[in-house]
Amino acid sequence: MKKQLSLAALAVLGLSSVTSAAQPLLNLDTVFGGKFDFGYTENQNITVQGFKPIQEGVENSEKEFVITTPFLKDAVDANVESYSVLLSQTPITEYTSGTKKPELIDFSEIEYKPTAEDRMLGEYTIKIPATDLDAAANYHGILVPMDDNIQEGTPSTPFCLNFETEKYGVGEECTSFGQSTLETTNTENTTEYAGEVEESTEEEHDAAGADMRLADISHTINNNTITLTWTALPQSANVEIWLFNKAQADFVSLAVVPMTQEKFEYVVDPETEEYLFAFIPKDAKGKETRYDVNVRHETTVTPEITTTPKVGPVEDMLLMLGITLALYAGYRVVLARKAE
After folding, report:
1. Which residues in the chain come in under a pLDDT of 50?
2. Contact criterion met (CB below 8 Å) for 277 and 228
3. 128-165 burial, b for 16+ CB within 10 Å, e for fewer?
4. 264, 48 contact by CB (below 8 A)
5. CA proximity to 148, closest of 79, 72, 45
């Protein structure tokens, strides 16, 4: 396995806070068998975004593998100093289970240090380039947080990828990654898979698994962000979220997230009023469901209130005079009738 990202790759990333090492600087024995005081949890973990063009809008642009992570706190509630990607061609579970001893030669490490500007965004985007990696090989990785005392935290959920096929997986999917039975997602097969999605809103994927119709999906809208929430189902470890793209007349994959995350945020386009999401269980096959959000119908409209002009003292006096004259005229009519 090739070990070191070239300087050209770092230039492409445009991140001065990214460094790489020919062999990991992390303590691998700690990473794969230590006790941790901070780090990733089931409810706070990475989100796999998949393969994205390095240059948006440029035809045939090279792809990079993108994941996002929440900003973590260390054991003393300070910001985690850095996040390191560890990549190996051996499944991570072989190291965590003790089947294989982690050796430095088996891994590549890329360290990412967020800036103050990065932290203002709320989450950190990790971009892994293909440079100096074997495009045909299957890679398995984790993200390891590090505090300012160079102490490792609990690693993220494992992820896996292949640059040549643009397939990827997360969690339990990576155990059999690369085998023909694995259901993975890539940008090339999006159209084919989405076409199957359109055939039924309750498509069954061949075997028992999570039925996303039972996940009690709901949403809230705050400013320009849709927050989708659901109840985690035990049959699948992860759920893939798709969005119908009207321009392409097809569904596109947004992300694969842990089922237990129970939340996904999506920033809306001001020009779009309606969004159709699809929730597809991963790992174990199951049933998907769709969820519709109409932004226009949920926009709060404040009615215009017209202020009634205040009546002044002059108007009050004229009103009283008019009433008095009307009473006096009535009185004179009554007297005239009696005189007759």
Report:
1. 1-16, 181-207, 300-302
2. yes
3. bbbbebeeeebbbbbbbbbbeeebbbbbbbbbbbbbeb
4. no
5. 79
Query: What phi, psi does 34 have (nearest 5°)?
Result: -90, 175
Chain centroid, CA 178 distance in Å: 25
**CATH 2.60.40.3760 intervals, the chain:** 1-188
Tokens of 235: 């049959």
Structure tokens at 33: 């068998």
Q: CATH 2.60.40.10 in the chain, residues?
A: 189-299
Could you give the strand order of the β-sheet that contains 289-294, starting from the edge strand earlier in sequence?
123-129, 63-70, 47-53, 250-258, 238-245, 274-281, 289-294
Confirm if 219 and 227 have CB atoms less than 8 A apart.
yes
Q: Which CATH number fits domain 1-188: 2.60.40.3760, 2.40.50.1020, 2.30.30.100, 1.20.1600.10?
A: 2.60.40.3760
Q: Which fold has domain 189-299?
A: Immunoglobulin-like (2.60.40)
CA angle 8, 255, 10 (to 5 degrees): 10
Per-residue confidence (pLDDT) for residue 24, from 0 to 100: 64
Q: What sign does the CA torsion over 215, 71, 15, 4 have? A: negative
Residue 265 near residue 226, CB atoms below 8 Å:
yes
pLDDT of residue 4: 39
